[in-house]
Amino acid sequence: MARIEKRARTGGRTVYIAKWYTITGQDRSKTFASKKDAEAHLTKVRNAKLHGNEFDPASGRMLFREAAALWLDDRKASLKATTYAAHAERLAPTTAESMTRHARLTHKGQPLRIDPSFGDYPLNKITHDDVQAWVNRLVASGRQPSSVRNLFFVVRQILEWAVKTKKLTANPAEHVQLPGNRTASVAKGANKSAAKRSRRRDDPARFLTAAQVAVLAAATPWPYSVFVHTDAWTGLRPGEIIGLRVGDVHLAGEDAGESWLSVAESVAVIDGEPVYLDPKTEGSVRDVPLTADTAARLRAYLAVHPNLHDPDAPLFPGFSAVPLRLPHMRKREPGTVPPSRLSAAVRDAGAELRAARHEDLPPADRQAAALADLSVDEAA
Question: Range with the lowest mean pLDDT among 10-24, 57-71, 224-238?
């Protein structure tokens, strides 16, 4: 039952203490200078209970780091394993030593990652200005707009979870100004590399021409050249081509018929290990036709594959016969393709990258569009 107690403080000052019980039976109190203010507060408490909007100020003292852990745990069952791992990485703590050692983790001495920025703050101490200032630091540091938005959306969802669980009355991340889709502003005095990053397009959608694919495949040692050629002419996502198994290759006879790849899985690295997952979308489960040249290369490649007769074996295994790791495919391995050799080959061929702006098409279709000027004979 709600009530007001009148108390005399040292020095003769009189205060009024509003006391009430929460819906869970916890005793709460708040002190006011006048009885009128105390009564007004209890009226708000009663109305909140009546409409199911009761708010416990004490719960807002929970640290952002603790709320983030609870939010992530609540979403584990509904998130894809890769999305869960990405959120966990974004929320991972960063030591002061790491921030000192890695310049990309700070901007003008202020942290950029989520945990150092908000982790030690109680939820009810995080303001709209705090979130906006953090976003501004990310932009000024040269982060791509998409990266800034992805980090911000995680923070906003955690704070929204705090509102839903009655730890906050409002989300301080609402109405925060974010960078646009194509540009990111760089603060005056930012370093040159940050300025260059800011001028890049978000997802420039660059694709190789047929001549460039031929040069690149020729400059790549076998059997990696088969991997390069197959990916270029099928437009598969990195995780999809790495996720191919021997049984996913369907080769027609050498004289006639169609050849294709069955795409039904994708590989991602989670906690340092490659894991087979369902494709990105339902539409990603598909059969991808192969050109005659691609089919011939895969036929020769499979003829010496160490697990030719195991349909579940990775089509493109690493040295340990497990699927290739995505991080390894996104950077050149030492001793594979010397930079000087590749750049010279491209220069001799007179090939130049051309940007294709087909944002409304999926990646496979955009790669196909870049090669659409070829005749059937040239493609074969």
Answer: 10-24
